[in-house]
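Researcher: Quick test of sequence recovery. C-alpha cells follow.
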C-alpha cells in the first residue's frame, strides 16, 4: 500500500501490517480511502436495517457489526486488534473487558439505571475506551449505540454529527474528542452535553 494516511486529531494510527490489510491496492490517497470506507459503512447500515437480531449486546454482534461496516475495505475487520495503540486496553484484555461492558449495558436495560440516551452514550464511551479494533472504533461505537437505542430501547437515534463530518478536523470533532477525554477521566457530563442531553444533578 502506497497511501500515507492523514489522521485527524484523536484518530488511531494503523501500523504497517494493518495498513497492509487494505483490500484495494489502487487506493493512494486519504480521500479515496475515506470514500471507500463510507461506501462500506453505507452497505453495513443497510445490512443493519435488515437484520432482525435483538441480541445486539453480545461480543458476537459487536464483532459482526464491525465486519459489516469495514469488511469490504480491510481484511482485519471484525477481528480484535493484536497490537497496542495510543488508546485502549492491552489486546489480551479486549474480549473480557468488552464482555464486561456489554453485561453492564444489559444490567442498565434491566434495571432502568439510566435513561436510554445516557445509557447509549455511556456504552459508546466504554467501547471506544477499550478500542477493540485496529481502526473504525469511534464510528463503530456510535453506530452500536444507535442500534441499542433502536433495537433495545425502541427510541430515536442520536444526532452525533449535527451536520458536521466527524472524520475531519472541525469544531464538532474537537468537541467530541474533548468530551471523550473528559469521560476517560470519569466526567461523562461533556459527552452527554455533546449529544444534547443535560445531566440531571
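Model:
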Amino acid at each position: 500500500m502506497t497511501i500515507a494516511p492523514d489522521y485527524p486529531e484523536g484518530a488511531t494510527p494503523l501500523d504497517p501490517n494493518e495498513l497492509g490489510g487494505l483490500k484495494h491496492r489502487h487506493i493512494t490517497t486519504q480521500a479515496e480511502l475515506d470514500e471507500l470506507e463510507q461506501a462500506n459503512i453505507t452497505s453495513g447500515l443497510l445490512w443493519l436495517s435488515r437484520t432482525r437480531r435483538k441480541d445486539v449486546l453480545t461480543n458476537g454482534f459487536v464483532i459482526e457489526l464491525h465486519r459489516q461496516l469495514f469488511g469490504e475495505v480491510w481484511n482485519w475487520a471484525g477481528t480484535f486488534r493484536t497490537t497496542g495503540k495510543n488508546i485502549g486496553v492491552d489486546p489480551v484484555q479486549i474480549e473480557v473487558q468488552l464482555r464486561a461492558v456489554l453485561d453492564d449495558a444489559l444490567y442498565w436495560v434491566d434495571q432502568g439505571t439510566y435513561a436510554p440516551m445516557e445509557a447509549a452514550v455511556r456504552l459508546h464511551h466504554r467501547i471506544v475506551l477499550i478500542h477493540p479494533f485496529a481502526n473504525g472504533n469511534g464510528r463503530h461505537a456510535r453506530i452500536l449505540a444507535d442500534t441499542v437505542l433502536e433495537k433495545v430501547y425502541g427510541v430515536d437515534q442520536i444526532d452525533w454529527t449535527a451536520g458536521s463530518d466527524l472524520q475531519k478536523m472541525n469544531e464538532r470533532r474537537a468537541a467530541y474528542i474533548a468530551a471523550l477525554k473528559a469521560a476517560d477521566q470519569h466526567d461523562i457530563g461533556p459527552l452527554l452535553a455533546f449529544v444534547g442531553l443535560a445531566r440531571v444533578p
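The helical segments are 16-19, 30-50, 59-70, 94-111, 116-130, 137-153, 171-184, 189-194.
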